[in-house]
Design brief:
Radius of gyration: 38 Å
Number of strands: 2
Number of domains: 3
Number of helices: 5
Helix content: 55-70%
Strand content: 5-15%
Structural class: mainly alpha
Length: 155
């Protein structure tokens, strides 16, 4: 890098934190570890520290700063809890997929059984005959008053 650029960088003051919660980060972290809700933390900051902030501001502040801690904790333990969750989720998805395949196979077997089943009518019996020269009529059949749409009953 050019010397003039380095000198410019050296003369710039350090950038101040953009969050007004930064001075209270350790305090907020401790409140969260003690089980305090974000709403309670907002009230404590307002009543005891004189800091006015919104629920979502505290939530986002904690969330953004928690990510690096989780990564460091995972490195220290050697195995991440999220890896365990992903593994268990994959096992559950695999079991679910296998049950779906079994159900699908069962459905296909039932469909094939229905196709092999003989129909209720004999092969020679005609239920409906269409004649394009005749208009369609409603015809009453039997005692149960079964109305059917037909063109010509018997040919």
């Amino acid at each position: 890098m050019d010397e003039t650029l380095k000198s410019i960088l050296d003369t710039l003051p350090p950038k101040m934190s953009r969050s007004k919660l930064e001075p209270y980060s350790e305090f907020i972290r401790e409140l969260r570890s003690r089980g305090r809700s974000y709403q309670e933390i907002v009230q404590i900051l307002r009543d005891r520290c004189g800091v006015t902030t919104a629920f979502h501001t505290v939530y986002n502040f904690v969330r953004v700063r928690a990510k690096p801690e989780r990564k460091q904790r995972a490195k220290r333990t050697g195995a991440s809890r999220s890896t365990e969750i992903v593994t268990s989720n994959r096992q559950a998805e695999t079991a679910e997929a296998q049950s779906r395949i079994a159900a699908s196979n069962d459905a296909w077997e039932r469909i094939e059984a229905l196709k092999r089943r003989p129909s209720g009518q004999s092969a020679g019996e005609k239920v409906f005959v269409y004649d394009e020269d005749q208009p369609l009529k409603l015809v009453q059949r039997g005692e149960n008053l079964d109305w059917r749409l037909t063109a010509k009953q018997n040919r």
